[in-house]
Amino acid sequence: MKSAATSERSPDPRHSVRATRTAGRAMRSRLLAAASRLFRERGLTGVSIADIAEAADAFPSQITYYFRTKEALFVEAACRDVLYVGRAAEQHAGKQLSPSDYTRALVESVMGTDAVGFFVETMTMTRRRQDLAPLVERTVERLHAEGLRAYAAEMAARGWHSRLDPETSARRFWAIAIGVTIEGQAMGRSADELAAEMRGLRGPQADAPPDAARLRVIGANDPVPDTPSAGKEKQR
Amino acid sequence: MKSAATSERSPDPRHSVRATRTAGRAMRSRLLAAASRLFRERGLTGVSIADIAEAADAFPSQITYYFRTKEALFVEAACRDVLYVGRAAEQHAGKQLSPSDYTRALVESVMGTDAVGFFVETMTMTRRRQDLAPLVERTVERLHAEGLRAYAAEMAARGWHSRLDPETSARRFWAIAIGVTIEGQAMGRSADELAAEMRGLRGPQADAPPDAARLRVIGANDPVPDTPSAGKEKQR
Predict the structure, then answer these.
(1) What pLDDT, on a 0 to 100 scale, did the predictor assign at position B235?
(2) A contacts of B136 (beta carbons < 8 Å)
(3) What residues of B are in contact with residue A182 (Cβ under 8 Å)?
(4) Using one digit for the tens of pLDDT, what is the confidence trace for B33-45?
(5) What does the pLDDT average to over B143-158?
(6) How far off is chain A from B193, nearest CA to CA, in Å?
(7) What Å distances lie between residue A5 and A1, A10, A14, A70, B219, CA to CA?
(8) Helix, strand, coil percent content, chain A, rounded in steps of 5
(9) Using omega within 30 degrees of 0 as the cis cutoff, is the peptide bond preceding B11 cis?
(10) pLDDT tens, B71-98?
(11) Using CB atoms within 10 A of its CB, is residue A161 exposed (0-12), middle (13-18) or buried (19+)?
(12) Which of A187-191, B76-80, B118-122 has the highest mean pLDDT?
């Protein structure tokens, strides 16, 4: 390949540009990871740029170079985290075998972290800081779009039937996640309580066709389907 | 009556206690109203105790006497406002004639003010200020309880059938209202857009029995029921 051949005649300006870009991305990512951990523990006002630089083994000037302000770093860290949690939840849910387990896994993955709470802080912050709004806005749009894409793909691949149109189901997922998180913060609820409240408010989202219902693995918490043609009859 | 007779032999100590209490309640209420207006316009950090005192024609010391801190006044004003808006919404919705108009009126009343946005700010504030959490917690409980009571009473009085159990319907109303408000703030949505998003995410809540559907007044936005026994047939 051309790039491999030319790299022996160093310095290749494209190669060093690429190396610089890679190093830049790695530093950005390290700063975001350190910032996320500190902000989640202590909140925006409890963390300084110097604290984040120290935790990431970097200089304060590198933070202002990549993010300009502490508030912009706060918003970017929260947006990155909630998108990551949304994708991890889809992957975890994708391994489940029934619609009810899929729905439960999605909710428990998202509510099992404090990423939604962290993201909510940035959303309320942008009410008074319109300069920070565009990234939050794009993140909400991506959460909706990625949620819709994953949900619609699961329904199609498994032959499940969504009770609501998939777009409403995906958007409602995030509205309820946000609402339940904020209420839960005010009520001092645990992650388990938040997940239980959210599951109750969402209700069943999808149904498997009768064939799939007979073939699927029956979990401990699933009611045994009351189908006359099922191989095993439930004792009454 | 006894109090009327004794009031002529003034000073009646109970009378003056009552007068003092009434004056105290009036001052509290005046301070809350002024604070609410200023906080909604400028946010917590944009308003001082001196500003509120001036707007309410009071002394700063009266604010600290009744509320101790600006933050506590902020929380109490937001809690009072959201409870008021919830009740006003129930009253407005109670005048509607069909389940779909009832649902729409509830959503539009609540989303037509910025009371939910103001309340959300206090909810996120209590995440770092646990001393202010109890009032917010009681307010969330009251919103749920009052919403449930009003909704269940409407269903029973009109013979409507709720699609969800009424408690889930009432709790989901507030979770979605909060989630949609926060997303909408980040997205720069108008009150009308928030209401439309919330109506879409809630979906139909209740159904009238067939008789009531034929008798109800048909609004401009309602589809004409396609019932063969209806007096007027829609032209096609």
Answers:
(1) 37
(2) 186
(3) 120, 123-124, 178-179, 182
(4) 999 999 999 989 8
(5) 95
(6) 14
(7) 6, 10, 13, 43, 75
(8) 70, 0, 25
(9) yes
(10) 999 999 999 999 999 999 999 999 999 9
(11) exposed
(12) B76-80
Q: Give the distance from residue B138's alpha carbon to the nearest chain A alpha carbon, in angstroms.
A: 9
Whether A113 and A180 have beta carbons less than 8 Å apart is answered as: no
| pLDDT tens by residue, A98-131 | 999 999 999 999 999 999 999 998 888 887 788 8
Inter-chain CB proximity B186 and A126 less than 8 Å: yes
CA distance A165 to B130: 40
Q: Which residue has the higher pLDDT, A227 or B183?
A: B183
Q: Are B214 and B229 a contacting pair, CB within 8 Å?
A: yes
User: Smallest CA–CA separation between A9 and chain B, in Å?
Assistant: 50
Whole-angstrom Cα distance, residue A4 to residue A136?
A: 40
Q: Residue A167, SS3? A: helix
Q: With beta carbons under 8 A apart, name residues in chain A contacting B177.
A: 179
Which one is predicted more confidently, A227 or A17? A17
pTM of the model: 0.80
pLDDT interval class at B217 (50, 70, 90):
low
Tokens of B205: 């809540």
Pick A186's closest partner by Cβ from B137, B172, B187: B137
Supply the pLDDT for residue A89. Answer: 97
Residue of B139, B176, B189, B197 to mutate, interface with A, max A Cβ within 10 Å: B176
* Single-letter amino acid, residue B182: I
Structure tokens at B234: 């829609």
Please check whether residue A79 is in contact with residue A122, taking contact to mean a CB–CB distance below 8 angstroms.
Answer: yes
Contact A179 B179 (CB under 8 A): yes
Report the distance separating Cα B206 and Cα B208, nearest Å.
7
Inspect the interface and report whether the beta carbons of B175 and A174 lie closer than 8 Å: no
Structure tokens at A24: 């830049």
The values of phi and psi at residue A141, to 5°, are -60, -40
